# Entry
Amino acid sequence: MGLVNQRADADWLRTEYAASERRVCGLMGIAVSSYRYQTTRCDDELRTRLVELAREKPRFGYRRLHVLLYRAGEAVNHKRVHRVYREAGLSLRRKRRKHCVRVGQPLLARTAANQEWALDFVHDAVECGRAIRVLSVVDAYTRECLALEVDTSFASRRVTRVLEAIMAERGQPGSIRCDNGPEFTSRHFLAWGMEQKIEVVHIQPGKPTQNARVESFHGRLREECLNVSWFQNLFDAKRKIAAWRTEYNEERPHSSLGYLTPSEYAAREATSYGKDACQKAASSENATERVSHFPTAPATAAVCNESQLTCRIIP
# Structure
């Protein structure tokens, strides 16, 4: 407890219990001289100087203002500057960053293509130093890279156009997993997802492992393409990244797919799915035929005749 607070408590005790000054100071453990002390310092000049500097530099805090005072030849303790700075009402108001609250969505094992697409961005630069962004779209089951869109900036409408182009070729996904970037949290993107009846799954902020499939893909993209390529300009980057996407889908063995390429794995799964559908259809037809072999009408007639005979015997 500071001396100022102790003196305030001592004043309250004297007023509430009508105790003597020495008695209260003894209970509080402070010296009587410290309780009676009245400051003789005057901070008006320092306060005026701080207000002038704050008007010249409105976004400077007390530490920078203290440096300016020191440069001007005024030797003032930084704690005194802080106290006068606060008393003068010069403290800056800091805007607290708004953190979005998300519920963790664990990765689920997918059993077919187009059940979930994973989206994310990866960054790089061209020869002149200009930054570029690459939008990645990965199928969570077949691990196919559905798109690698390269540009200097992306708006949410550009993202939805890329997704619509993919949907025109291979159909609509059941859900989309992405982070909380402005492209994926805009009103346009959320309204587009509702209009297309696609579930948009946002991961928790600061937890990229909840979108681990696309993060793993970005590791391969970074090691095998971005780190070993020199992009002269944006068009050169688009050409080289598109060539690597073709190699990834059609030539590169994927360890999690039994060292098949994503295209081979997708084709095999599509074939097996077609066979399963044919088998189910054939089994349903056989079941229908077996049920139709049993005559139901004669059995009903026999039951009716038995009931009539029983009725005749009872009288």
